[in-house]
Amino acid sequence: MEEGSLHLEKQVDVPPGLIHFAALDNFLNLCRANSLWPMTFGLACCAIEMMATGASRFDMSRFGCEVFRPSPRQSDLMIVSGTVTWKMSTAVVTLYDQMPEPKWVLAMGNCAVAGGPFVFPGQYSVVPGVDKLIPVDVYVPGCPPRPEALIEGMLKLEEKLTGRRRWPTVEAK
Asked: pTM of the entire structure?
């Protein structure tokens, strides 16, 4: 046998497993994507649009985002809607830390995404994007974004969880 070469005397056949974790993971991700529980958490004007998304006209419960939970320990989705100040940043991080795993964050509005019109040279109070504090999974731009944009952001999060899109996309002409 040559030096440095690998030679196996006998090839061992491994029997297939009885439990397929990939299929279980796919099933669990589908369940998670179709039952997101967002936290009741609004910081500024974007929270009004978030409330409108949960109301009967837009009804985000059709898309698996049923009930806004009052506690971070009952939530798996944090929708940061509005301006985050440095004074509020410790509360945002504390709420995020209290959420059980797996957890996701959706930044809603230009203020949550990048600080909005309040970020300029010399300002000291506004966080230039919530992603400086906590990891963000989906960004929904707009000032304030329409309820349809928030629903699209939730569908993007669902697509990120399952690897496929349940609802068709509308292409611009």
From this structure: 0.78
State the pLDDT at residue 84: 92
Mean pLDDT for the chain?
83
HEC string of the chain?
CCCCCCCCCCCCCCCCCCCCHHHHHHHHHHHHHCCCCEECCCCCCHHHHHHHHHCCCCCHHHHCCCCCECCHHHCCEEEEECCCEHHHHHHHHHHHHHCCCCCEEEEECHHHHHCHHHCCCCCCCECCCHHHCCCCCEEECCCCCCHHHHHHHHHHHHHHHHCCCCCCCCCCC
Per-residue pLDDT tens over the stretch 5-42? 454 455 556 556 566 577 777 777 777 667 788 888 88
As a whole number of angstroms, the distance between CA 159 and CA 41 comes to 23
